[in-house]
Amino acid sequence: MQSECPAACSGKKASRQHALSTEQRERISAAAQAVAESAGGGMRCNYCGCVYVARGSQREQLGFLDDGVMGPGWHSRRYP
Ligand SMILES: [Zn+2]
Questions:
Q1: What is the pLDDT of residues 32-55, one digit of tens each?
Q2: How far is the CA of 52 from the centre of ligand 1 (A)?
């Protein structure tokens, strides 16, 4: 079962959560790509742009891609 956005945004519905496309994966930082790869690929919320990975029931937020507030591109404090 797919879960909701870990950023708990207002459009967090499970139906808005998608696997990162190849094109999106190429636009996040190399550090974030490495984490996504080690977790079997990343996910993105198409409402808030949150990119995250799931390891079992644990989810880690990597950053935001094309965030509505911060603007286009990759935004991450942890994986700049
Ligand atoms: Zn979201």
A1: 999 999 999 999 999 999 999 998
A2: 10
